[in-house]
Amino acid sequence: MPSPLRLLMTITDHEPPPDAATGSVRRQVWLGGATELTTRTMIADPPRWLTITEYETAPPAYAPACAMEHAVLHWEMEQLLPGRALSAENAGGVILVSMDVDPAREDEFNDWYNTEHIPHFTGVPGVILARRFRAITGAPRYVALYHVEDTDVYASRAWMIANETPWILRMRRFQRNRTYYMFRERRVI
Predict the structure, then answer these.
(1) β-strands 175-187, 142-148: how paired?
(2) pLDDT digits over 83-119, tens only?
(3) With a threshold of 0.85, does the pTM exceed it?
(4) Which of 19, 52, 138, 185 satisfies CB 3.0 to 4.6 Å to 31 for a cystine?
């Protein structure tokens, strides 16, 4: 069985330096901000930068120093679902949600995320790809990335319906340290 896809994911308050990666490393940089949960829109000020660095075997040597300099959040992660799918090249935006979960409920949390939550969101119009990750380093421990046509999908009726099942309402009771971000502009640096 192949090893899981690994990523470095960093949210910073500063534009990251130009890419020095080569070989089997893929890097995307997005500009966005935190999510205003009442209106389900992006808070553009202060701006936040998301860097997603995907790699096959070992993290690039340059990444930790660059990533940590202005890090708001930083993780080294393994992809849990779906398989080894890479970032969607045709996405118009990325929605990031991270959280910790009560250790006593972790098995049920993972079962719910894998069998209900991600499958529901892959069926939402405008969602190109839904992926989930577990932190090797960094916190919160779990991260979901939704590659979307446009981040406006976050306020759509279909998103709301997928996000209000009885099981999700139960699992929310066991989650903490949740963060929400939206990124709308992919940058080439």
Answers:
(1) unpaired
(2) 889 899 999 999 999 999 999 999 999 999 999 999 9
(3) yes
(4) 185
CA torsion 109-30-88-131 (nearest 10°) is 0
Q: Considering the domain 6-187, what is its CATH architecture?
A: 2-Layer Sandwich (3.30)
Closest among 95, 102, 98 to 121, alpha carbons compared: 95
DSSP H helical segments within the chain, as ranges? Answer: 63-68, 106-112, 118-122, 157-162, 166-172
- Write down the residue that tokens 């993290």 correspond to: 59
CA dist 69 and 110 (Å) reads 32
DSSP letter assigned to residue 65: H
Residue of 53, 51, 104 lying closest to 79 (CA atoms): 53
Within 10 angstroms of residue 136's Cβ, the number of other Cβ atoms is: 15
Helix, strand, coil percentages for the chain (3-state, nearest 5): 25, 45, 30
How do the domains of the chain map onto residue ranges? Answer: 6-187
Residues in the chain: 189
